[in-house]
Amino acid sequence: MASTQAPEAPSPNGTAIPDVPTPDVRFFRNSGHTHESLGLSADDVTAMYRNMLLQRRFEERAAQMYGRQKISGFLHLYIGQEAVSTGAVWGTRPDDPIITAYRDHGLALARGMDTGAGMAELFGKIDGCSRGKGGSMHFFDIDKSFYGGHGIVGGQIPVGVGLGFACKYKKTGGVAMAFFGDGAINQGAFHEAANLAALYKVPVLLIVENNEYAMGTSVERSRGDANLWKSGYPYGMKSVVIDGMDLFEVYHAFKTIADEARGESAGGDGAPGETHPIFVEVQTYRYRGHSMSDPQKYRTKEEMEGKKNEDPIVRIKQYMLEHELSTIEALDEIDESVKAEVMQAVEFAENSPFPPEETMYEDVYVQKDYPFIS
Ligand SMILES: Cc1ncc(C[n+]2csc(CCOP(=O)(O)OP(=O)(O)O)c2C)c(N)n1
């Protein structure tokens, strides 16, 4: 891997500053992968396609339900970023812990959350994945090693490092994945967590989903150096940059780096047998506003039109047709079955009751007889 030396220069107190190697970064884009080169069967690709479509249709329907006031509070859509969730989940193990911010529906559905439990959560109903008390920003599914869904920007990053530390401490062989937005990378929480992750060689992937905007502020306007992949350097972490609109690139990258971070293969920052963190920038795009109340005045129609050609679902659909992995009729049928699954989820959510008042204090503290609750 490329590594250049910075020129030696005197420090202010006269001692020589040691050579600083430029840390390497690996790029996962334009690699020309095919499903065959990745060892994926037609069924595998079809399952991934269906999953991405499920996320898309789930959120389109959720937006409609929000308009009908079936859903209240916040609703942040993941539309455009589905290759990230699906590629990451397919490229890692089912029990590798995942934690993310409030744009969480896509990752939860990729991890296999029940669509009914997801929709019921949006409706604030008792059969929701967080018993109707978390809402859109707080999806949770412990059985699927999905640890949320967090509304405080950057707050999930230290918890994600903790999940990675638990993998190491308990010797599970797992690697945690902490997802966060480009806005969150400027929070102190990221830097403290990254430092500890590096210090303790925690098997964690610190993943910034760079969708180009934090609310209405573009990365270029909020960051002195918009090359976010450099953010692991101060902590001695190796970095990767992934084309997040390309399902195969994301899948291949996560398969590679997850095994490196869990210490099962060499590369990046360590030898086999040595766990360590890796910093990951996934370059992606969100097609919708920050939340349902965002009029999106900060970007032009031309920008959004241009990005439509990169739609990860359209791209994989084209690939499947070109490589004769499916027919247009079969893909239409998948769409119909996905829409039917989402409609069933809506019906399930409609029929589920709101949480009874006495459940208000449940699930707040682990300790059952917490003295302040009577
Ligand atoms: C600590 C904190 N500060 C501010 C907010 C308000 N807020 C919610 S989302 C957001 C922008 C975050 O953008 P980014 O991390 O890029 O994620 P994206 O929404 O683009 O996925 C802000 C400032 C918050 N929720 N928490």
UniProtKB/TrEMBL annotation:
GO terms for biological process: pyruvate decarboxylation to acetyl-CoA. Keywords: Oxidoreductase, Pyruvate, Thiamine pyrophosphate. Its EC number is 1.2.4.1. Gene3D superfamilies: 3.40.50.970. It catalyses: N(6)-[(R)-lipoyl]-L-lysyl-[protein] + pyruvate + H(+) = N(6)-[(R)-S(8)-acetyldihydrolipoyl]-L-lysyl-[protein] + CO2. Residues 1-23 are annotated as: Disordered. Pfam families: E1_dh. Its cofactor is thiamine diphosphate. It comes from the Bacteria. SUPFAM superfamilies: Thiamin diphosphate-binding fold (THDP-binding). Residues 51-356 form the Dehydrogenase E1 component domain. GO terms for molecular function: pyruvate dehydrogenase (acetyl-transferring) activity. Heterodimer of an alpha and a beta chain. The pyruvate dehydrogenase complex catalyzes the overall conversion of pyruvate to acetyl-CoA and CO(2). This is Pyruvate dehydrogenase E1 component subunit alpha. It comes from Rubricoccus marinus. The gene is pdhA.
